[in-house]
Amino acid sequence: MSMPEIIRTPAEMVNLTGGSFVPTMGALHEGHLSLIRQAVGLGGPVVTSIFVNPTQFAPGEDFDAYPRGLERDVELAGEAGCDIVYAPAASTMYPEGPEAAVAAAAAMPLPPVATEPGLEDADRPLFFRGVCLVVSRLFEQVRPARAIFGEKDWQQLQVVSAMTAADPTLRSIEIVPGRIVRDPDGLAMSSRNIRIPPEHRDRALGIPRSLQIAHAAQHPRTAEQMMIETLEAHDLEVGYAVVREPAGLTGVDDFTRPARGLVAATLRWDGGEVRLIDNRAMTIWS
Questions:
Q1: Distances from the Cα of 189 to the Cα of 148, 152, 220, 247, 250, angstroms
Q2: pTM of the complete model
Q3: Domains of the chain, residue spans
Q4: CA triple 211-151-21, angle to 5 deg
């Protein structure tokens, strides 16, 4: 295994365009590594970015607590087949300074799927403006042929797809979905999972269990009620538990066409909390 080259400025990327790109905030786990391995199969060079983006965190969210460890991330990325780790400084991504960067994020035009579904956009109102700003700048700097985004962040995947398609300077970039990777007990892998105390792990499993139980429902409203009841039975604070059309995340009235169950819930314990999300395709009933 050869270690990836670490690049920190756009100028160093000039001769490395046209490959496969996996943007991350680091704290790599098997979910990220599966995206990198997927990228290897799509054509290189394979570039993985590691940048904890401040503009997508609202005051009081877990920016400072977000796990960081570049050396370990570079090692894991290399084992998965990554050629280049792009690890820019905040001053490289936001040369205008932090306050101006927040203002630039606030001014970002957003597609309807980033503002209308009432999911992540409602729970984290600054989130998609920061995501769209940083992703657009990363795309401009890395200039890939394709970028791979995990399906666990389902709304984010739809937002990035819509943003890219609407921007003439970015629409040549193919947005490729990567499947959700789960721990053996069913919890969707997330960098935040390491913060879950072992004694509260079973409570967190209420999230995938809610989706699994709802999968048997024959009507969207029944599925939503089943998800809510399961989350509450695991002592989780429900952010949302809904069934939506997969691309635009608008409401659905039946299961005769593809639909997606989406859940967000907060696990709280004495001395801490963590917010987790998950989703899965629902059964089509003909």
A1: 16, 8, 26, 23, 26
A2: 0.93
A3: 7-178, 191-281
A4: 165
Query: What are the tokens at 269?
Result: 């314990």
Please report, for residues 8, 163, 189, 244, the alpha-carbon distance to residue 262 in angstroms, rounded to integers and kept in the order given. Answer: 36, 21, 16, 8
Closest CA to 105 of 137, 147, 64, 140: 137
Task: List the CATH code of the domain at 7-178.
Answer: 3.40.50.620
Mean pLDDT, all residues of the chain: 93
Tens digits of residue pLDDT in 148-172 = 999 999 999 999 999 999 999 999 9
Q: Which fold has domain 191-281?
A: Pantoate--beta-alanine Ligase; Chain: A,domain 2 (3.30.1300)
Q: What are residue 273's DSSP bridge partners?
A: 268
Report the amino acid identity of residue 121. D
| Both tokens assigned to 237 | 């604070």
Q: Catalytic site residues?
A: 32
CB atoms within 10 A of CB 69: 13
What is residue 284's DSSP assignment? P
pLDDT surpasses 70 at 257: yes
